[in-house]
């Protein structure tokens, strides 16, 4: 069943990485521009971020296995709908719905892993395999996406999800009977989070186009919506963040790390295909130094976690990511681009594969009883917030001169911040 759970997450990640190399074809076919491609990415990540906490709560309330199966089936069906979208507006709607189903897959898969592997060592090994199998989407996605785009255009990248969903459902036929934890679900905070992310994305996008009046208005709306959402969440009978997690410092540290890692990762996946300006398949091959490591290295990361604990590989990962992103920025300024770019992408691959598996295990290990679904939802919601802001920022900045260098320098700086945030964190099991 571990294979099926991992393939489901593979499918969710594949939908992001496959689309990454389809940007130029999407621009030509619909037609649209870099901003439109950015919205095609952020429509998915915004919906995913806004609904992940809800997905975690549903997994705890209705049973992780039930939510997992329904969400996986819905993901495959809606992917086919995206493949036949006649225009950008329809595609954006489909991508948003796709993000909602993905929000059911991710936290329920983490809850299933926690139920299948109760012992910490077994769970660490399982998460390592889960990260490696799902991380293969990073390796396969850009190359497969590039091949599909050159063969049949951007629509083909969505068709691939349907057979994957069927395989997931076949591998996960067995019912686990995961314990349910009844919870009231309040829609207002979730809607507020979605509106806040949409306003923030609009503000960043408009600022990148130098539409300052609209950007200012959207920025003010973001602050107001954020304040209203926080206030509504505190008064809600079913808050986004359960009371048992509000003062859990290790868990919140993992949330912050996940946000920064996904910001940096999305910057690479979104910006490199547009900056390098090569064919879709060539871009996929260019990304291989990073994506192959993301698929292979988590197994070695698991050994580091078992020997040194989770904080050592997390620190190594942020350091490697900062160095790698800096090298990519340098590659975009000089004549040695292929060599330096490959070296930089290797550093980024080490960064992702050293940070994500241990921070997932760190968060789950510090989750109170009955809150693993909520932790999984919040963790992945924060990661998608990072992805949403990363894609929006890259899409906006790439429209200005030397924007390709700027987006990578900013991402490198944020990874340095992530490294500094690990200094005062306790080991798993403490709070």
From TrEMBL:
Q: Where are the transmembrane segments?
A: 36-55, 67-86, 92-117, 129-148, 154-172, 184-204, 210-230, 251-275, 281-300, 312-333, 363-382, 402-423
Q: What is this protein called?
A: MFS transporter
How is this protein positioned relative to the membrane?
A: Multi-pass membrane protein
Q: Which residues form the Major facilitator superfamily (MFS) profile domain?
A: 1-430
Q: Which UniProt keywords apply?
A: Membrane, Transmembrane, Transmembrane helix, Transport
User: One Pfam family name from the record?
Assistant: MFS_1
Gene3D superfamilies assigned:
MFS general substrate transporter like domains, Multidrug resistance protein D
Tell me where on the tree of life, at the top rank, the source sits: Bacteria
Location of the protein in the cell: Cell membrane
Specify where it is mainly localized.
Answer: membrane
